[in-house]
Amino acid sequence: MMGGGDAGFVTTKLDDLLAWARKWSLFQYPFVTACCGMEFMSLNGPRYDGLARFGAEAPRFSPRQADLLWVVGTIVQRQAPALKRIYEQMADPKYVIAFGTCASCGGFYDNYTTVPGIDKLIPVDVYVPGCPPRPEAVLDGLMLLQQKIQSGTRGPLVVPTREVPEMVQLRKKGTAVYYGQRKLEAERAGANPLAQLSAELLEDRPGEAVRIEREKKG
Question: Which domain of life is it from (predicted)?
């Protein structure tokens, strides 16, 4: 076929083969800085066996031997030069996954010391939201990255939220994570977040609402 002038056809098929091999042989470099690291470690446990099943089991602690950078947790300004240096030293083609809310957008740390999302420093391929993200969401992010590598598409991807039974129960109980999200939604909608949350707390957790009122008075 190459002699007949169909070299382009052969090259295209070769690219597909290389992409298939690349997506199943990711060499990860975990950059773990905060509490999301506990959820990252659970991925390799017997319940999920997450990274091994997707060809990303063995970590590389030299950037020059890695092509997948996991940024797990909050990045402060003093860590920013180190993160950029690690990314620059990685082998091409290289990929970045923002693990959790803090890595994706800075989380609830809105101050001068925190980087409001690692995309201010390096390009991100996949965002995995959550505080912390569940292992299922992280696996969804890894599969999204594999699809991106195979198809050769460009631009960042975001893992869609997944409703699991545990989160439904937490929302019903009125956890801090749920009310933090509701506060953000209320602020974006222009509503009074304190009034809205007080009403929800009073309905779901009367004791918690009373405690908050006491702290305000104290």
Answer: Bacteria
CA 184 – CA 166 distance, rounded (Å): 22
What pLDDT, on a 0 to 100 scale, did the predictor assign at position 193? 47
Higher pLDDT among residues 41 and 197, named by residue: 41
Q: Can you list the alpha helix ranges (DSSP code H) found in 110-205?
A: 135-151, 165-173, 176-188, 193-204
- Between 3.40.50.150, 3.30.499.10, 3.40.50.12280, 3.40.220.10, what CATH number should domain 7-158 receive? 3.40.50.12280
Per the DSSP assignment, residues forming a β-bridge with 128 are 99
Residue 200 or residue 159, greater confidence: 159
- CA-nearest of 101, 152, 91 to 125 is 152
pTM to 2 decimal places: 0.67
Query: CA 30 to CA 59: how far, in whole Å?
Result: 7
Binding residues: 35-36, 102, 131
